[in-house]
Amino acid sequence: MKGLDTMFSHKEEYALNKLLSEYVSLYHIDLNSGKYEILRIASNTNARLIAEQVQSIPAFDEYAQQYAEAFILKEDREEFLDWHLCKNMKKRLLENEKITYHYHSVSKEGKDSYYEAYAVKENVDKSKFYIFLGYRNIDSILYKEKAIQEKLQRALDETRVSNEIISSIAKTYQYISRIDIEADWFEEISNRDRIHMKFLKGGCVSQGNKKICKDVVAEEYQEAFLKFADLSTLPERMKKEETIAMEYRMKDGNWHKLRFIEKKRDKNGKLTHVLCAIRSVSDAKKKEQMLISQVAEAKKDAALKARFLSNMSHDIRTPLNGIMGMLDQANHYPDNLEMQQKFRDKMMESSKYLLSLVNNILEMNKLEAEEYTDKEISFNLADVLKQANTERQILAEKKNVSYIVDWENSDLTYVNLSGNPVYLERLLAAVSDNAVKFTNPGGCVKVWCKQKKADNEHVLCEFGCADNGIGMSEEFIGHAFEMFSQENQTSRTQYEGSGLGLSIAKKIVGYLGGKIELESRKGVGTTVIMTVPFRIGITEPFKKRTVREGISLEGKRALVAEDNELNMEIVKFMLEDHGIIVDCAEDGLEAVKKFEENEPGYYDVIYMDIMMPNMNGWDATRKIRSMQRPDAGTIPIIAMSANAFAEDIINSRISGMNRHIAKPLDAESVLNVFKECINISENKEKNK
Question: Taken in order 575, 580, 584, 590, is the CA torsion positive or negative?
């Protein structure tokens, strides 16, 4: 028996040692007195450092305090001490057989360790309350738990991200539902647009589709919608597809895209459940339609350019062929003055047509590029009308066409206006040129102006042009304002038209804020009505301008500013050939100096080039107009420039120039514009 007891004692000791090896430290404590006994402390532990440094700490509370201050993080210290106070451990063990506590310890070297404190009652009576308190390292357990927690956290994060992605994708759809195909049943998942999608939250799919189709789907898409939404054919249609979609228009004009997405298949691979997702694609459709329109526009532009090149090849080569042909023929009659004059006249006619063609092309290019000079200038409407009609009257006379300026219809209450007279003149010229061009010899062109309505600041002017020319068919009228449009290609040869006149007029009238209307009958003639608003200037009654015939320029003195030697020679000859005395200046600076050096009234006119070194023509004009002498504000200053766009003419007017003639110059224009300036000056003197 004694041997058995001894054997049992050895086993018990062996088991106790095995169990104690898990604990790095073990204490026997009387919780009533606080006295303690250290039963075991492993080497290389934080507790051994405390035990070695503090040999005589009688109370366990103080021992725990020393440990906490040395190895427990400040933020964890209060909790650690609260658990280790003897009175607190006793209180907990009165209610439990054992208690545990996990804490984080940091060595002097900064190494982190995690421990479990384990307290169990040993001998308890009224006077004593003994416990065993052991500590074991749980780093491996904690790190494993941490790894599991991190893995779980990653899984949660991935799930959250997936849910966020699904949620974000779902936001692109206004409506989502799940459908049981075999049961013909649906259940709504989300509806973000109940105002426009007044759907049931669940029910029979086929019945719901019929109602939706009838109520909201546009008529032309109803048949296709029902066919696409038919559940009886859906499994077969999605046999090899994960998703299918269709677009359709709603009755309110918006566009929707309906998409079926695979959700579940049976063991044989047959589709049994789908998601139904609907989203608005109105913006995308608008962009798509805009792109289609742009493609169509690009094709139209390409065709227009091709037609332009074809037309220009014909229109430019025709007058060039005439000029070259006449030169060749002239070489065969070197001594025949009559034939030489005939050839020169023909070459001049072809040159003028070529010039007008180039002007029209450049003008249309400017207008197409929307390079519009939006500047208001004060002007006299009667002067603009006269200037616009004079050249057309000459053109009509050469063609034996009667050109009537209907002054009876020109009820001009307001003649001093503010607006863009340059574009107005171009507008009237484009329309009346067209009328003369397409009216046969012996025919008639009539133009007029009416002021239709006015308020305190504005007046609406109507400009009309009627001819009894070749006219247009009803089918062609809709294309009349398109570039290079002519009803018959033969008219390009017969009437020498580029097909740009009405296109230019349409663009200009749009820039002026007006409207243009056209009436025409084939073989009867054409009437064009243009209405344009202007600001009212200083109000004065209309007085018909008197034109003094036979104005003589003999003995007049002209100052010509031109930096190009050949151009100077040409204009000097034109003027001197009609008895005008010419002084020359090589640039604007010299022109200003010569004007300033001579007494008032010495010069009767100044012809001023624009692009010149040292001082350009516009600046030279401003300089002259600002001089304190009686003729500075009245002397006619006429621009002569290779720059013939509307903005160039407007800038000439703004600088103080009276007229603007474009190069290449012809003697008739150079002299007539001087005569017009003299005539206007005389009319002003009479009306004072």
Answer: negative
Segment (H or E) for 186? strand 185-191
Nearest residue to 551 via CA among 469, 674, 431:
674
Contact 523, 509 (CB under 8 A): no
Tokens of 203: 């029910």
CA–CA separation, 129 and 122 (whole Å)? 8
Element (H, E) at 374: none
Query: Measured on CA atoms in the order 479, 481, 484, 489, is the torsion positive or negative?
Result: positive
Q: Judging by beta carbons within 10 Å of its beta carbon (0-12, 13-18, 19+), is residue 274 exposed, middle or buried?
A: buried
282-321 per-position pLDDT tens digit = 787 777 777 777 777 777 666 666 666 666 665 667 677 7
For residue 418, the number of C-alpha atoms closer than 13 Å in the C-beta half-sphere is 9
DSSP code per residue over 63-79? HHHHHHHHHB-HHHHHH
The structure's pTM equals 0.47
* Distance, CA of 316 to chain centre: 38
Q: Are 559 and 601 in contact (CB under 8 A)?
A: no
Pairing of strands 98-106, 112-124: antiparallel
Task: Note every long-range contact of 302-307, with CB atoms under 8 Å and residues 24 or more positions apart, other chains counting.
Answer: 304/483, 304/484, 307/484
Alpha carbons 534 and 514: distance in angstroms, whole number: 10
Q: Calculate ∠ Cα 581-583-588, nearest 5°.
A: 145
Amino acid at 127: S
Residue written as tokens 């007085």? 543
Q: How confident is the model at residue 327 (pLDDT cuts 50, 70, 90)?
A: confident
Say if residue 223's pLDDT is above 90.
yes
The residue among 66, 84, 77, 82 whose CA lies nearest residue 29 is: 84
Q: Do the Cβ atoms of 653 and 422 come closer than 8 Å? A: yes
| Burial degree of 623 (CB within 10 A; 0-12, 13-18, 19+) | buried
Do 583 and 603 contact (CB within 8 A), yes or no?
Answer: yes
pLDDT digit string, tens, across residues 429-486: 889 988 998 899 999 999 999 888 888 889 999 999 999 988 888 888 877 777 656 6
CB 244 within 8 A of CB 237: yes
Half-sphere exposure of residue 539: CA atoms within 13 angstroms, side-chain side: 7
Q: Compute the distance between CA of residue 20 and CA of residue 371 in angstroms, rounded to an integer.
A: 98
Query: What is the Cβ-side half-sphere exposure of residue 372, based on CA atoms within 13 angstroms?
Result: 17
Q: Is the CB of residue 673 less than 8 Å from the CB of residue 539?
A: no
Which DSSP symbol is given to 546?
Answer: P
Respond yes or no on whether the N-terminal peptide bond of residue 664 is cis (omega within 30° of 0): yes
Q: Are 631 and 639 in contact (CB under 8 A)?
A: no
The predicted model gives 530-550 an average pLDDT of 70
Closest to 196 in 3D by CA, of 289, 278, 287: 278
Q: Taken in order 383, 389, 395, 401, is the CA torsion positive or negative? A: negative
Higher pLDDT, 590 or 410: 590
- Encode 341-360: b = buried (16+ Cβ within 10 Å), e = exposed: eebeebbebbbebbbebebb
Contact 231, 206 (CB under 8 A): yes
Question: How far is Cα 166 from Cα 609, in angstroms, rounded to an integer?
Answer: 73
Q: Token pair for residue 392?
A: 């057309």
- Spatial distance between the Cα atoms of 134 and 23, rounded to a whole number of angstroms: 6
Q: What angle is formed at CA 185 by the lines to CA 181 and CA 187, rounded to 5 degrees? A: 115
Q: Which residues contact 576 (CB under 8 A, 6 or more apart)?
A: 582
Residues 140/146/149/155 CA torsion (nearest 10 deg):
-100
